[in-house]
């Protein structure tokens, strides 16, 4: 068997990560537990970061840099997106290029139902004679956002999940654009191109009285988002190791074989799509609550591709990888502002280079890396 | 819904749609050729087209086009633009193949990896032009002033519409002949039918693949010229929507099928113009996606069926 051309390149990185990974798995369970807790504690401490020697990490350490906690919040939202998209791309093996659609649906759900300025809330006020301050409470908007995103995921998935993988990608790309255009054109319920303002947070509509979840201090927002991320990590991990997770793996590796063994590919693909959509909706919801104002142009197709890049560059199939990709792609342009003009160029380059040199991603899932290697060896044997 | 406008000037809108669809069809051929042989959606093809438009603009600026030149000069500019656009697009397409796809083929990468790579390349190319040429719409000199060329059944056909449709048909015919009648065309069909058997029979697979990328690129360059003449502007992300629609056209006609690309392109152009007329352009772009989803749902092989290999039975 010939050596695959992929080995040798970036092997330093591989060896480093593999070494760290193996050593980590070799530790006793209680030590891993402590390590994990320490890491989580560090994450919660991050917005206050003031350790000498590490302050250069802060985005406000450079001139004109953005609020550090605000950037951390963005990172956390992106991590949430990456976790959701990782379920679709990494676990179920479906390339979704319209993920921004679900993100937009989640964002618009809280805007349309929670903001006093949304046309829908206004018409409800008129109809039922409610006070002009009335709007649906933030907390109730959470299930609404998740449910709407999930429903749209099912509506999109039902016809398209029977298609071949690459057709699915293009159709989802179209879906993302359709959502944006529909929102832009529907002035009577979505505010149209002007967008919707005064989107509520946990303490209600943005105002000077909001001491905790206000517009200025982003720390509580970050802690909120981080807590949600940790919860989702826990849930998705449980899912991965469940019957559903194993079915995804089977469908991803060989759909026909899975079907023969009694796993209904369509059903489990649909689950992946719906769960991914729900997480996309949740992240859109968080994003909109913090922003306070959204408009359709914030949800363009470039963003979808950015999301895919996060998962794929980080390592699809592995939550840590996807999260790493999200943090890198959200944080680096903020810290190195001089390059922010070039950021999409760099993302594109990163995408190409990773695909050519290390298709399993920076921090791969062991299983995915093996699948890719198997295919290469098939060629080597056949040639 | 503005039905009066649509049915009052049905002929006009149809001709408009056909002209628009001709451009889609030319770009769709690039998708169809590559898909027919490699079973790969060349997502970067939209950027191949975009680079064509910028090459046309560059050539025109170089030759000092300002819209006031005489007939001879206009023809020269058109020819130079065609040459420049086709060369730039063709070179880009071949370069993309050499840099990215060939390596992935050697690695036997799964289709999704091809697609993600193509997306990355597409992003790199369009961002490069976004940074280099600015992010705003770049205007072009108006080479041909719009005027009515002739009237048929009360429908006015303008000169640019006429040029677009005729040029697209001519190129389409030339490609069809090339694939069906020449030695190289036979090679392309052979590889499309069965790559391994073709290789055993002495067809150089890599060269055939390069040829189809080149052909697709040349046609995209020609489409770029027609687009420049018709719309008179371009932008770094002009390829995104157009590419998506051209892909839709290819799928609609039957991806991998050359005549299908023509049919799909023309049909999609007409559908879009009708939709735009009915809804004051608001839902024009949605129409294309709806067509795509409906076609994939009910007839995933497209109207004429997908087959480059069986282009001539």
TrEMBL record, chain A:
Keywords per UniProt: Cell membrane, Membrane, Transmembrane, Transmembrane helix
Pfam families, sorted: BPD_transp_2
Membrane topology: Multi-pass membrane protein
Name recorded for this polypeptide: Branched-chain amino acid ABC transporter permease
Transmembrane segment boundaries: 33-56, 68-90, 97-115, 135-158, 221-239, 271-293, 305-332, 344-363
Organism from which the protein derives: Winogradskya humida
Compartment annotation: Cell membrane
Keyword Transmembrane helix: yes
InterPro entries xref list: ABC_transp_permease (IPR001851), LivM-like (IPR043428)
UniProt key word Cell membrane: yes
TrEMBL record, chain B:
InterPro entries, A to Z: ABC_transp_permease, BCAA_transport_permease
Pfam family, one: BPD_transp_2
Its membrane topology: Multi-pass membrane protein
Signal sequence residues: none
GO cellular component: plasma membrane
Origin superkingdom: Bacteria
Transmembrane segments: 23-41, 48-65, 71-100, 112-132, 160-179, 208-229, 235-255, 286-305
Keyword tags: Amino-acid transport, Cell inner membrane, Cell membrane, Membrane, Transmembrane, Transmembrane helix, Transport
Entry similarity comment: Belongs to the binding-protein-dependent transport system permease family. LivHM subfamily.
PANTHER family recorded: BRANCHED-CHAIN AMINO ACID TRANSPORT SYSTEM PERMEASE PROTEIN LIVH, HIGH-AFFINITY BRANCHED-CHAIN AMINO ACID TRANSPORT SYSTEM PERMEASE PROTEIN LIVH
The protein's name in its UniProt record: Branched-chain amino acid ABC transporter permease
Species for this entry: Winogradskya consettensis
């Amino acid at each position: 068997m010939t050596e695959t051309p992929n080995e040798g390149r970036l092997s330093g990185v591989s060896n480093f990560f593999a070494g760290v990974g193996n050593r980590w798995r070799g530790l006793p369970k209680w030590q891993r537990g402590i390590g994990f807790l320490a890491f989580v504690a560090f994450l919660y401490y991050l917005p206050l970061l003031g350790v000498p020697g590490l302050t250069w990490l802060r985005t406000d350490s450079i001139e004109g840099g953005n609020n550090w906690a605000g950037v951390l919040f963005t990172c956390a939202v992106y991590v949430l997106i990456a976790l959701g998209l990782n379920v679709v791309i990494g676990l179920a093996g479906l390339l979704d290029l319209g993920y921004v659609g679900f993100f937009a649906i989640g964002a618009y759900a809280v805007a349309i139902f929670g903001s006093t300025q949304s046309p829908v809330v206004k018409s409800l006020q008129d109809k039922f004679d409610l006070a002009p301050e009335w709007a649906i409470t933030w907390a109730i908007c959470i299930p609404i956002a998740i449910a709407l995103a999930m429903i749209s995921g099912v509506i999109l998935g039902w016809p398209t999940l029977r298609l071949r993988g690459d057709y699915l990608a293009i159709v989802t790309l179209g879906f993302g654009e359709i959502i944006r255009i529909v929102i832009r054109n529907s002035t009577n319920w979505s505010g149209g191109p002007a967008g919707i303002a005064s989107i509520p947070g946990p303490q209600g509509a943005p105002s000077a009285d909001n001491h905790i979840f206000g517009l200025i201090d982003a720390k509580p927002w970050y802690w909120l988002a981080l807590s949600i991320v940790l919860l989702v990590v826990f849930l998705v991990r449980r899912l991965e190791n469940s019957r559903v997770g194993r079915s995804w793996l089977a469908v991803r590796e060989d759909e026909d074989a899975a079907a023969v063994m009694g796993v209904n590919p369509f059903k489990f693909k649909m689950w992946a799509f719906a769960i991914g959509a729900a997480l996309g909706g949740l992240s859109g919801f968080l994003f909109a609550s913090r922003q306070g104002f959204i408009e359709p142009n914030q949800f363009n197709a470039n963003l979808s591709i950015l999301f895919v890049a996060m998962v794929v560059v980080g390592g699809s199939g592995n939550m840590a990888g996807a999260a790493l990709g999200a943090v890198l792609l959200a944080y680096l342009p903020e810290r190195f502002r001089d390059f922010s003009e070039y950021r999409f160029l760099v993302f594109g380059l990163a995408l190409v280079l990773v695909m050519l040199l290390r298709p399993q991603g920076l921090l791969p899932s062991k299983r995915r890396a093996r699948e890719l290697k198997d295919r290469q060896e098939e060629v080597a044997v056949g040639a | 819904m503005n039905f009066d406008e649509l049915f009052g000037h049905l002929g006009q809108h149809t001709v408009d749609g056909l002209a628009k669809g001709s451009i889609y069809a030319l770009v769709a051929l690039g998708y169809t050729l590559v898909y027919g042989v490699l079973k790969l959606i060349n997502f970067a093809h939209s950027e191949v087209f975009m680079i064509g438009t910028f090459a046309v603009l560059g050539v025109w600026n170089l030759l000092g086009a300002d819209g006031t030149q005489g007939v001879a000069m206009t023809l020269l500019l058109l020819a130079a633009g065609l040459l420049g656009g086709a060369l730039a697009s063709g070179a880009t397409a071949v370069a993309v193949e050499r840099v990215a796809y060939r390596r992935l083929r050697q690695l036997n990468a799964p289709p999704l990896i091809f697609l993600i790579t193509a997306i990355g390349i597409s992003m790199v190319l369009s961002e490069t032009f976004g940074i280099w040429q600015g992010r705003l719409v770049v205007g072009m000199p108006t080479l041909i002033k719009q005027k009515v060329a002739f009237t048929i059944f009360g429908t006015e056909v303008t000169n640019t519409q006429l040029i677009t449709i005729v040029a697209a048909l001519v190129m389409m015919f030339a490609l069809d002949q090339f694939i069906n009648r020449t030695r190289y065309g036979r090679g392309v069909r052979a590889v499309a039918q069965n790559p391994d058997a073709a290789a055993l029979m002495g067809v150089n697979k890599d060269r055939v693949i390069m040829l189809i990328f080149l052909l697709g690129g040349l046609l995209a360059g020609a489409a770029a010229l027609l687009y420049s003449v018709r719309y008179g502007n371009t932008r770094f992300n002009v390829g995104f929507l157009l590419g998506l629609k051209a892909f839709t056209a290819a799928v609609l006609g039957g991806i991998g099928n050359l005549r299908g690309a023509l049919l799909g392109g023309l049909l999609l152009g007409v559908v879009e113009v009708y939709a735009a007329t009915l809804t004051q352009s608001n839902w024009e772009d949605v129409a294309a996606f709806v067509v795509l989803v409906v076609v994939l749902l009910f007839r995933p092989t497209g109207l004429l069926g997908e087959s480059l290999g069986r282009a001539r039975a």
